[in-house]
Amino acid sequence: MSTQAGRATPPLPEQCVHDRFAERANDALEAVALECGGRRLTYAELDARAGQVAHLLRGRGVRPGVAVAVSAQRDLEVLVALLGVLKAGGHYLPLDPDYPAERLEFMLADSGARLLLVQPEFADGFAGAPGLDTVLMDRDWSAASELPTSTPAAGARPDDLAYVMYTSGSTGRPKGVEVTHRNIMRLVHEADYADLDPGQVMLMLAPLSFDASTFELWGALCNGARVAVLPQGVPTAASIEQAVRRHGVTVLFMAAGLFQHVVRTRPGALAGVRQVLVGGDTPPPAEVRTVLEFGVEVVNAYGPTECTTFSCARRGVTVAETRGNIPIGAGIVRTDTYVVDEAYQETPPGVAGELLIGGPGVARGYLGRPALTAERFVPDPFGTAPGARLYRTGDLASRDADGVLHYLGRRDQQVKILGHRVELGEIEVVLGNHPEVRGAAAAVRTTPNGEKQLVGYVLSDTLGPAAGGQLQDYLRERLPDFLVPTAWVRLTEFPLTPNGKLDRSALPAPVAGGDGPGLAPRTPLEQAVAEVWTELLNVAAIGVHDDFFGLGGNSLLATQAAVLLQERFPVDLPVNVVFNAPTVALLTEEVHRAIAEHVAQLSDTEVESMLSQEREG
Predict the structure, then answer these.
(1) How distant, in Å, are the alpha carbons of 244, 274, 551 from that of 268?
(2) Which domains does the chain have, with CATH numbers?
(3) Is the pLDDT of residue 386 over 70?
(4) pLDDT tens, 100-145?
(5) How far, rounded to the nearest angstrom, does the alpha carbon of residue 319 sit from its chain's CA centroid?
(6) Which of 590, 610, 588, 585 is nearest to 599 (CA)?
């Protein structure tokens, strides 16, 4: 049965997102809407500045149905820009500046965007894009300050697009999900899965290209709450704890992998937060129990991008539920859920089937992909509304005797890594195009320390045993970091099932360690680097030639390692240093080089002061 069956809920108001925001702004003009670092914007200031941006964009031809690409790091200006795009009647296309140029070029071409809002430091990356009108968020913003602050009469309607967000695609090319104002209103209006009201402070830490940002931004601003923006950069346990304390954060969303890392490394980081929504994967039970001890409410939030961030939620996860399969609960308000068999018949309690989702949160479809849209967005055989559709999630689920939903895994090759949807087929297609690869496969394995690791498998007659770095470089030029394997296995042939298909379950695990496993750290600096790895990877004995990713590291942990090393040594290290120096020995060389460069820039007095402090210590 549908979880909405028999639940009387009034229809959604016929509003666009920016109209709902304007109502909240009028209710509390001087309330703080956004804050980042030491900067703040009230609701009145945000409304006025976004109105000026909207007039600027209208002058550049933005109307309903017009895509506006936005490439910027997370800060106040880009959030003003997003609201301005909606006020102008257009829809935004978030472009992560860290994505490879090839992927950004595809998204621009596929979306048809002809206008780009960009922070100046990223503008050069789009210099070669044909027919692209560029608005810089500093110089052109100054021009906007002379424009009216009112919202222009753009004529946008609830069923017009609000944004297009790209997700991983099994064919080797990402697909754009078309999300309307009505879809977002279903998420934010009368939300029953989270506390969204003027008394809340929401931490915004998701990239704009990740649909959790929809909840963080519009869930707060459409309900009069405050958004505390985490400064740009990969979130770390330390930066999240600092933001929670500084801004008095009461509610936030975290992908399951990040949640696990933060709570494992800093158990009290979320103390004081009222509510933590965890999604993107099954919440880690041990870490859930830890935060419950601090009185934090944990919500297991589930939902695909195609259904506008969240579709189901289990509020108030209990300690008892962490002893088994933590349920995903029930469909959130105005969301229908069905568990069906191959004949689209609902399964009885306890019997697995595919989870289908309906209601006004279901997106319009995939941009320019009518066949795929028809395959995944199907007519609703259970509903009575004309033209109603259901989204086929591809997820297996079951209901218990009380009607509570339990997630059971995927039907296909789609997986989640650090909260990001990953189609293994996309990795395999791109990897298979490498000139020295005659066969490619990808799989996700769980490491001994409980982290999910993306592993690449290749058939090659010419690549050597240590070609992982070469393959990673090749993929990083074409795919986002979360789609790049961190461990590699070279095979002569792939294991096959009796019917000749790839047998993923028989793919071997990568071998941890390097060419000298077991060799202990030889210097104090190597020991210090190894201690950082031990802290992050939860591995007791680490040799100087062991590979960080072979031991279970991933892109998030690699970035955390760089941050921790910078905290412990007076050096500047790039966040990707571990990717380029993945063993203790190699990474120590990088740290030593950075220390030497730092000392060379000091005066004799500063060096003597450092030495004195060292002797006294």
Answers:
(1) 11, 13, 26
(2) 17-156 (3.40.50.980), 181-412 (3.40.50.12780), 417-506 (3.30.300.30), 524-616 (1.10.1200.10)
(3) yes
(4) 899 999 999 999 999 999 999 999 889 878 889 999 988 667 878 8
(5) 27
(6) 610
The type of residue at 224 is G
The pair of three-digit structure tokens given for residue 40, joined into one six-digit string? 């703040």
What is the pTM (predicted TM-score) of this model? 0.78
CA distance 391 to 378: 6
**What region does 253 belong to: left with phi over 0, alpha with psi -120 to 50, or beta?**
beta
**What backbone phi and psi angles, to 5 degrees, belong to 470?**
-65, -40
What's the angle, vertex CA 479, arms to CA 473 and CA 483, rounded to 5?
Answer: 95
Q: Which residue has the tokens 């201690």?
A: 531
- H helices of 408-501, in order, are 424-432, 468-476
Nearest to 438, CA basis, from 479, 490, 476? 490
Question: Do the Cβ atoms of 1 and 336 come closer than 8 Å?
Answer: no
The answer to whether 215 and 226 have CB atoms below 8 angstroms apart is no
- In 173-261, at which residue ranges do the beta strands (DSSP E only) sit? 175-180, 201-204, 226-229, 251-255
What tokens were used for 362? 């279901």
Distance CA 497, CA 88 (A): 55
Mean pLDDT of the chain: 87
Q: Compute CA distances 191 → 14, 222, 310, 315, whole Å.
A: 16, 11, 11, 12
